[in-house]
Amino acid sequence: MKHGNDTVQMKRLPEEDLQHILNHTASLWEAMRGQSVFITGGTGFFGKWLLEAFSYAIREMSLDTVVYILSRNPEAFTTRFPHFAAESHFKFLKGDVTDFAFPELDIDLIIHAATEASAKLNHEDPLLMIDSIIQGTRNVLEFARTKHAGRVLYISSGAVYGIQPDGLKGFPEDFPGGPDPLQPSSAYAEAKRTAELLCACYGRQYHMEIPVARCFAFVGPYLDLDAHFAIGNFIKNGLNKENIVIRGDGKPMRSYLYAADLVIWLLHILLFGKPGEAYNVGSDQAISIEDLALKVAGFFPGLKVEVMNQVRPTDRNQNYVPDIHKTMNIFSLAKPFSLDE
């Protein structure tokens, strides 16, 4: 398979992953029997995992759940992923999240996961980044309001917390910080904060149930290896038999939740998250970028890691790790997969 070739048909997820999701969410799927679900961002990393999970649960539990997927280019997506096009319970709708025409449908649940999580776009066109997040969220919330949707899950980001202070092991949901609003590089984070505020305002003014999932870093099949995600870049280096080069000092800390656990957590928040509250989604098992590179390199014989130690102001305070006690305890979630697993 040539990475990035949109004409190549992609494989499905391993059944053991889908069965793991079903084992931890069976009662949740039962609650969605007969429901209609509207998903934005269904063609992205999160979205494809959600669609795989819905497909598997519908088939294994004989559900009559219908899933509507908004996409700017359904034809290209279903050509690359024909197994989604073959699902009779999946209905693809063409449109952009910022201005799609509201379809004449009855919708029970909405998962708003559409976001251009692109460091390149955030750097080159921060205004477009802001518009896509804020206008997209406003449009989805208006759609939910007019359709009297039962619940809306907003997929936010841990970026809303801003810089992680030295000595703070992980961001709790009530962390009072935030990104610098005078830095254009904060466009993504500040837009996410504003989108959360929109959710809170719609929730109070129109009595809508809108929990928020603040998502951190993840790993698993369907992860883009060409984006700004360190672990994806390192895996690509390994697949291409290229040594891993870290231009900074390799000390920033990250953590990674496996995508199967991501789906389990999101479904719990969708159905049982308290309206107007945020829940961190991610792993609290921190690892430095250098150690992450060494761990990935260990799967590829002969692969080496080179740390350049270039002085980069962006390396300071670039830790990005959540505190997940609230999410784990409230939903009684099982221990997620470790990074080694």
Feature tags:
two-stranded parallel sheet, 13 strands, 341 residues, alpha/beta, disordered N terminus, seven-stranded parallel beta sheet, 12 helices
Protein architecture, described:
With 341 residues, the protein is an alpha/beta fold. 38% of the residues lie in helices and 14% in strands. It contains twelve helices and 13 strands. It has helices at 15-23, 26-31, 45-61, 74-80, 82-85, 119-124, 126-147, 187-206, 230-239, 259-272, 289-297, 325-330, and strands at residues 36-40, 66-71, 90-94, 109-112, 151-157, 212-215, 218-219, 244-246, 253-254, 257-258, 278-281, 287-288, 305-307. Strands 3-2-1-4-5-6-11 form a seven-stranded parallel β-sheet, sandwiched between helices. Helix 8 links the parallel strand 5 (151-157) and strand 6. Helix 1 (15-23) packs across helix 3, helix 1 packs parallel to helix 10 and helix 3 crosses helix 10 (259-272). The chain is globular and about 55 Å long. It starts with 14 loop residues before the first helix and ends in an 11-residue tail after the last helix.
Give the gist of this structure.
This protein is 38% helix and 14% strand. The strands form 4 sheets. A 7-stranded parallel β-sheet has the order 3-2-1-4-5-6-11, with helices on both faces.
